[in-house]
Amino acid sequence: MKKQLLATCTACCLLALPALAVEQTPSSPSVIDFGNFTPPEDGTFVEIKVNGNLINMATRIARESEPEIARILGGLRSIRVNVIQFNEKDRTDVTSRVQSIRKQLDPASWDQVVRVEEENEDVGIYVNLNGEESVEGVVVTVINEGEAVLIHVDGSIRPEELAQVGERLNLEPLRQLEGAMNRDPQQSQ
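Above: the chain's sequence. Below: its structure in C-alpha cell form.
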C-alpha cells in the first residue's frame, strides 16, 4: 500500500511540475468541493491536488514524448485524490463526509454509473456528461474496511481515456472506471 501511495504521489508531482494558465470556474457543475480533511493521528493520509497550471505544464512537457497523454491532459482542469485511513471510532465521521460529498452531486448534472454496497465496501462512481462523447467530470468515492478514497477529475475527457489517466497517475479506481462505466448501472444497485 505504501509503495502504491508513494508511486501515486510521485507521478502526480511529476505531472504537476508545469503550469500557468487554465482557470477553474468554481460555479462549473463539474467542480466538487471535498472540503479539508484532518490527517488521522495514526494511519496514512494522502492529499494530491493537481490544478490547471500544473496540468498545463505537464501537458507541455509530455507533448513530444507522449503526445496522446498530452492531448488527454490538455482537456483536464484539475485532479484531486484523498486517501484517508481511519479506525473504527472515526468510521462514522468519514462515512458522513463521503455521504455529504455524494449529496453535492446534483442529479440534474451528475449520473451515478456505479454503486456497490457490500459488507466492507461502499463504492460510488459519478460522471458529469457532456453529450454522448465526453465526460466533464468524474467523482469516485470508496469506503472500505479502514480506508476512504476520494477522486475528482474535472475536465473534458472520453470515458475510455480515464483508464489511461489512471495508468499514468497510478490511480487504480480510474484504471477500472472504463469497464465499470460500460456496465448497466442497474446491475450494481
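The longest strand covers residues 147-157.
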